[in-house]
Specification:
221 residues, mainly alpha, Cytochrome Bc1 Complex, Chain D, domain 2, 30% helix, extended, binds heme C
């Protein structure tokens, strides 16, 4: 298609599609889309921060979570959070050092608030966003209890979750100390390109695994 035709098609599409979809286009170069309403933004803005900001109203107890967890979570994560088949184990102690780090809510998660966020946005795995806030609070409380982090009478809500101290909270490097490259960035007075010599390349160093042949020797030795 010639470029003026493409332009014409784009212009017609920009003008007609919003009208066909039944909403008025806002101003803007393409005249597409509308400014989202507060209710629409609210539907997407579900992030809960470590300090608890964003936690919804509502509450749920360990007790409330007991049956709910059995019905909607245990089929994958096990009755005691031990994990079924290859689904992740979410409860219990374990070591993070070693070839197979044992990441459970107890050993790994730094905040109970972001555990709520994760369950709220991603679980139950095949159909997330089906549990109302009270039920997410309840299963979060229950998972914390399975990990011996809260008592049996704990009630999770926007005040109590930020106060739960997770055992590995201090175990994270929040800022990655490793440089991306070992050269400083250069925007002026840079080294002349002719002086830059390539001293090494990855070629011939068997860094790339083989993609054919037996698997046991496929990785570079
Ligand atoms: C159909 C299986 C399935 C069901 C049901 C399910 N999950 Fe999960 N869950 C998963 C999978 C798979 C992952 C890992 C997802 C990933 O890493 O991307 C996961 C991850 C998690 C994690 C994070 C584990 C970690 O430390 O990385 C938590 C916590 C969790 N699920 C809680 C729940 C809760 C609570 C429910 C019930 C409301 C639930 N899950 C229901 C499959 C399931």
């Amino acid at each position: 298609m010639s470029s003026w035709r493409k332009l014409a098609v784009a212009a017609i599409a920009a003008a007609c599609i919003p009208a066909a979809l039944g909403f008025a286009a806002d101003k803007g170069p393409l005249r597409l889309g509308t400014t989202p309403t507060a209710a629409q933004v609210e539907g997407w803005a579900i992030a809960v921060r470590p300090d608890g900001q964003g936690l919804p109203a509502g509450s749920g107890s360990v007790k409330d979570g007991d049956e709910l967890y059995a019905n909607v979570c245990a089929s994958c994560h096990g009755t005691f959070g031990e994990g079924v088949g290859r689904y992740p184990r979410i409860a219990g102690e374990g070591k993070l050092t070693g070839d197979r780090p044992e990441q459970t809510v107890q050993t790994y998660w730094p905040y109970a608030t972001t555990l709520f966020d994760y369950i709220n946005r991603a679980m139950p795995f095949p159909s997330p966003h089906v549990l109302p806030p009270d039920q997410v609070y309840a299963v979060t409380a229950y998972v914390l209890n399975l990990n011996s982090l809260v008592d049996d009478d704990f009630v999770a809500d926007r005040n109590t979750l930020p106060k739960v101290k997770m055992p590995n909270r201090e175990g994270f490097n929040w800022i990655d100390p490793r440089p991306d490259t070992h050269d400083a960035a250069c925007m002026s007075n840079c080294r002349p390109a002719a002086d830059v010599k390539v001293s090494q390349t990855a070629e011939g160093k068997t860094l790339t695994p083989r993609t054919t042949g037996p698997l046991d020797t496929a990785m570079p030795q």
